[in-house]
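Hey team,

Filing this mostly as a record. A colleague (T.K.) asked me to run one chain through the structure pipeline before their review meeting, and I want the input and output archived in the tracker in case anyone asks later how it was produced. No errors, nothing strange. Just documentation.

Input sequence:
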Amino acid sequence: MSDRIHESENLPGRVVVTSSGNLAQRIAHHFSPKTVITLPHDRVVLDAPDTFVLVPGIQPVDAALMDRLPQLRLVQRSGVGVENVDIAAATQRGIYVANVPSPGTGNAESVAELAILHMLALARNYRASELDWNQPEGQSLWKKTVGIYGLGGIGQAIARRLRAFEVQLLGIKRQLDPQLADTLGLEWLGTPIERSHLLQHSDFVIIAASADNVTQPFGWEDFQQMKSTAYLINVTRGAWIDENALVKALQNKVIAGAGLDVFQQEPLAPDSPLLQANLNLTLTPHLGGHTDTAATGIANAVVANILRVAQGQPPKHLICR
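Output structure:
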């Protein structure tokens, strides 16, 4: 992406960012002053009725909001998920909805790194052994079996990095892809209806599937199929795990532990059962893609789509219109 400034006259309205972080600053670098602003989600209609592009966080973007923003032409998510956007309402109103795919922006790569961080922290008993010179024996990842549920951009990034640890890889994908399995060095590849096989044979189960197809969250019956020494990692969407069932499984030593970067409710409530001190959990506040590389890559993709729409072209990675 060029560093030159794009004149705001090319935009018929403003770009409003309601997501957290410094995304707005990175986008604003490419435009004239005051073209890009940050607002709380509930202030958009009052403070920026001339919104041309909305870059929302996790708050809902529904028909009522769209109707109150007559110049809105693009709802641009800064990640993959668009579950908070009313796609049907946007289509009816001729509003583009687009996302930023994980691969190639640094996002998938960053999330993959965090997944491995959780694996290592759990395997080496990090919480129990920090500054404890009589720490319990940990586990090596070497020769362990890792099952990756979801082999989109994030899942593939995880698999590529785990090969360096010399693990055995199993995978689940919506549609079988023998060529991809060979490329990633998978020992086995199945479809979602075969997830019992992955659960029963894995020392680590990593959920890397997107949130657009959560038909059967991982629950009590799934945890009972896992090894009692196995760990569960989730770095994509909280909807994939029944958290109450997970707490029960951890309390009863059905599985050894879990690492979560995403939750059913975000931010995590202070009284969440997941925060019990006696649970073998590693928790991070949905920071998988919050890295310098990912932020730059995502901002560049968002800017490119804003310019495309301003020039009368459809955005890339279009979800609807």
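Quick notes for T.K.: The domain at 8-102+292-320 is CATH 3.40.50.720 (Rossmann fold). The first strand starts at residue 14 and ends at 17.
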